[in-house]
Design goal:
This protein is mainly alpha-helical and 254 residues long. 74% of the residues lie in helices and 0% in strands. Helix 4 runs antiparallel to helix 5. The mean pLDDT is 92.
Length: 254
């Protein structure tokens, strides 16, 4: 069955995409840490969940890519996905060494089921509600996984936030070079980089926001979250007006 006319529901992968994605991961980490301090943790998680649900409803009811709705959903996932990983660690005392592999298994399961049902996990084919459901399940899983992996390297393994950020930055660079010069598959390269941008952004946010006693610069989580949020709003506003990141629908199998 062919639906070449169906509008795609995710953006084109440009430099704007990766910049906003990295900003959203950092913002989500800082905002989550800030909210659980200024509100009772249970209330903060409930608020994060409510915003996440509202953002998902807005995204799914567009039935096409709309910059503000898509990136609102990503930011909501950034905050709530961080909370999910932190709740397991803080609320249920699950070590990051356990939660990280757990989220990796969940993500792998999402990809396996997605591929078995749709025969592809490419973001260039997200033009139906079913495929979009799989896409967002993968996105939520990557954010939770990235949060756990980032804290595992920075805190549990004792690398610290700057070194942790550098490690993940180098891994992203390695994937980019492999894609460019070794012909690493575009789908594998995309999802690998997508996963790694989460711990990279989270490590940068923690380094900037946390006090020096915890290995940070001491800017404050709330301030870091606000700065990154304003940067996201500026870039998304530009894309909303310019339409530069709208994918052109192509003929694909549905």
């Amino acid at each position: 069955m062919r639906h070449p006319e169906a509008p795609l529901r995710v953006p084109s992968i440009t430099a704007f995409f990766w910049i906003i994605k990295a900003l959203s991961t950092a913002m989500g980490e800082a905002a989550s840490d800030y909210l659980v301090r200024v509100f009772p943790p249970v209330l903060a998680v409930l608020l994060g969940f409510v915003v996440f649900v509202i953002a998902m409803v807005l995204q799914f009811t567009r039935h096409r890519y709309v910059a503000w709705a898509y990136w609102l959903a990503v930011c909501a996932v950034g905050v709530f996905g961080t909370m999910v990983a932190d709740v397991l660690h803080v609320g249920f005392a699950v070590p990051y060494a356990v939660s990280a592999p757990l989220f990796a298994v969940i993500l792998a399961a999402v990809f396996i089921v997605w591929f078995r049902v749709e025969s592809t996990v490419s973001i260039h084919t997200i033009a139906s509600t079913r495929r979009e459901v799989f896409y967002w399940l993968a996105v939520v899983s990557t954010f939770a996984l990235g949060t756990a992996v980032g804290d595992l390297t920075a805190v549990t393994l004792g690398l610290g936030y700057p070194v942790s950020a550098a490690v993940f930055g180098l891994l992203i660079l390695f994937i980019a070079l492999a894609y460019r010069f070794v012909r690493l598959g575009s789908v594998i390269a995309f999802w690998a980089a997508y996963v790694l941008t989460r711990p990279f952004g989270a490590s940068v946010a923690d380094w900037l926001g946390k006090p020096p006693s915890l290995g940070g610069v001491g800017v404050g989580d709330g301030t870091v979250a606000l700065i990154f949020l304003l940067a996201i709003i500026a870039l998304v506003s530009y894309l909303q007006v310019s339409k530069r990141d709208i994918q052109v629908p192509s003929d694909f199998a549905s």
